[in-house]
Amino acid sequence: MDTRWRSVCRAVREPGEKRDGLLLQVKGAAAAAAAWWVSAWLLPLTVTAFATFTALLALQSTVYRSLWDSAQYLAAMALGTAGAAAFGSTVGVHAWSVGVLTFIGLIGARLQLLGRQGAQVPVVALFAFAGGGGEIDYIGDLVAAAAIGVCCGLAAHFAVAPSPHPDTAQDVTQDLAARAQRLLRALARTAEGRTDEGDSPGDWAGRCDELAARAVRVRAAVDKEQENTRLNPRRPWSSAEESLQRCHEAISMIERLATHIRSIARALAHAQRAPAADKVPAIYAELLHGAAAALECLDPPRGPEDADRLRDCVEDARRRYQDATAVVRKGRLDAPGEWPVYGTALTEAIRILDEINCPRR
């Protein structure tokens, strides 16, 4: 219990996702209570529960998502109530008419425009038709209750809109870039013939998969922050929006780096299993260290503090690439003991340098 209380206190004190989640719960309770009070004052008690449910549905994690989901829900409700009204005013409530209406509602639920709210079409249709006997007056009260709920939910969201957190998005993206840099350093140590704890070649596939999976999670977090800036009354300055866009560009670059790193890891694992004469040239380890240093200078997503230093790091790494290429070319490439992975390892290393020097959007 003490742990939960400390977590709540921390969420109140510190801005971030935990505070936004706690605030969303408070707004949900307030919106539900307001929707029930207004609907009970204006409408029959038989539909007040629908207003509270709709108020909670209208409160999503961001203002943009709340508006979009509310619009989709109201559209789904319009289709469902229209079907219920049509059947109620013509054939009446029977077992077969309930089945036919449900079938039609399930077809309507598949409309892509309604998104995840499409499932509400048959639900609302059955609620209005079977629960309210298909009577027009009941359906009108039901629609009014839903409108009250949506208004209360959106009012609570706009009154205390969730704060965008571009700095948090930058931090998690920077951490992702640091993980990619550590992988490059570990690869360099492997190429040098020394392995620290966790540098076993057998672990490389898992570590590359972990980096790729983390990139997916980080992109989802940045997407949420970008969505949080849309239609938000507490919308940040354009510089914050630009920083979120840089986060996306940095994540894309790191995902491409992860692909190149995986290829190098496979090549080095193959080289370590090869005969003694088939070892990786020492200059190649220096090339990987140089690539890691260049990535550190780039410092995505914030960008390099010293552009000249970044350029020097990339040029130094390119010289090491030329040296490694020269070492490989001096050997007899068709000999059985020749380094069999020179092409893959060198090609992927220069691609990493190209990504760092000229990151694509």
Task: Give a brief rundown of this model.
The protein has 361 residues and is mainly alpha-helical. It has 13 helices and no strands.
Walkthrough of the structure:
By secondary structure, this protein is mainly alpha-helical. The protein folds into 2 domains: 2-159, no CATH class; 171-357, Methane Monooxygenase Hydroxylase, Chain G, domain 1, CATH 1.20.58. It contains 13 helices and no strands. It has helices spanning 2-13, 17-42, 48-58, 63-88, 95-108, 120-131, 136-159, 166-192, 204-229, 238-273, 282-298, 307-330, 342-357. α1 crosses α2 (17-42), α4 (63-88) packs antiparallel against α5 (95-108) and α4 (63-88) packs across α6 (120-131). The longest helix is centred in the last third of the chain and has 36 residues, at 238-273. The radius of gyration is 30 Å and the shape is elongated. It starts with a helix and ends with a helix. Residues 7-14 have low confidence and may be disordered.
Number of helices: 13
- The CATH topology name of the largest domain reads Methane Monooxygenase Hydroxylase, Chain G, domain 1
- Global mean pLDDT: 81
Describe the biggest sheet? Answer: none
Distance between the termini: 47 Å
Number of strands: 0
Shape: elongated
Q: Helicity, in percent?
A: over 70%
